[in-house]
Specification:
Strand 6, helix 7 (about 150-155) and strand 7 form a beta-alpha-beta unit. Helix content is about 40%, strand content about 15%. The protein starts with a helix and ends in a 10-residue tail after the last strand. By secondary structure, the chain is α/β, with parallel strands linked by helices. Bound molecules: pyridoxal-5'-phosphate. Pyridoxal-5'-phosphate binds near residues 56, 57, 231, 232 and 233.
């Protein structure tokens, strides 16, 4: 008894004065607030929505568990992250599998087990077409990541400057159409478009542009989508504009009448906009050097 009380006192004293560092310090009520505000925004503007959490933004298992318990799906960009999602209790049907480096093996199992998959490399397109011939009764459906010119729609917003993004299939040079054609020829349906881009500022115009580009592709290619995945990259300020409401309203406006929001699910993949403010990295200063 005596010993354990001492241990307890010691722990409390240690955590009050000198928490061990480095440490991630989470403000849980604040985190709750961010998730609730995003949920409220989609409930208002696009109730048929799936929220997911971008693992790569911060893969702390406690944080992932927090998001999972609030109904957010897992958004992963590697096999390792896919397996982390499974290890943390996600079922494959609640995983959104993105990124250009999917392995043959993991793609095959994700397709069979019903994950949402956005293809982002030509080999993934060929592999999926090949899988379809192995599973003729399965009616496979996948999404495609779109390479679009953010700079043309929103000058100054691209984080890669005038360099084009290296992600997705370009909609103007024929590569997106080639992917659609190869998949359709193998009996694979295009279920979604994935529009994720980083942007330089908090601008909501980027999201209106992403939705507008998606709407143009939907119309010009005659697509009927199960989902439109706008990605992440939002900024989730607490009081200042823009709010989550502003972003989701802009997306809704951008798609116009090209789709019925009751039939096409909006997918969001936030990371930083949920965790950047509530999660802090604490470290100890061990030395101060003068350099001038
Ligand atoms: C990094 C990433 C996200 C999350 O980005 P944030 O800026 O943290 O919101 C979402 N989707 C994809 C595909 C990503 O690569």
């Amino acid at each position: 008894m005596h010993t354990s009380k001492d241990a307890m006192t010691h722990t409390l004293e240690t955590s009050n004065s000198h928490p061990p560092t480095p440490a991630l310090v989470l403000d849980v009520p604040k985190l709750e607030g961010f998730v609730a505000r995003l949920q409220d925004a989609v409930d208002t503007h696009w109730p048929n929505a799936i929220l997911s959490y971008s693992f790569k933004t911060n893969p702390l298992p406690w944080l992932i568990g927090f998001m999972r318990d609030r109904g957010l799906w897992a958004e992963v960009v590697s096999d390792t992250e896919y397996q982390l999602a499974i290890a943390l209790g996600y079922t494959p049907e609640h995983i959104i599998y993105n990124g250009p480096i999917k392995s043959h093996q993991q793609l095959w199992s994700a397709l069979r087990e019903g994950s949402i998959i956005n293809l982002d490399a030509k080999r993934e397109v060929s592999w999926t077409a090949e899988f379809a011939t192995r599973m003729p009764d399965a009616s496979l459906a996948v999404g495609l990541r779109v390479n679009w010119d953010l700079e043309a729609y929103c000058p100054g917003q691209s984080t890669s400057g005038l360099e084009h993004s290296r992600f997705g299939f370009n909609a103007e040079n024929g590569e997106l159409d080639a992917a659609i054609q190869e998949l359709n020829a193998a009996g694979v349906r295009i279920a979604g478009l994935h529009m994720h881009r980083n942007s330089a500022t908090q601008s909501v115009d980027v999201y209106r542009a992403a939705a507008t580009v998606a709407a143009e592709i939907i119309t010009s290619r005659g697509l009927t989508l199960d989902y439109l995945d706008i990605g992440g990259g939002f900024y989730g300020s607490m009081d200042g504009a823009p709010t989550f409401h502003d972003y989701i309203a802009a997306i809704r406006k951008g798609v116009g009448n090209t789709l019925d929001i009751r039939n096409t699910t909006l997918i969001l993949e936030p990371g930083g906009s949920l965790v950047a403010v509530p999660v802090e990295m604490h470290a100890s200063v061990i030395d101060v050097k003068s350099v001038c």
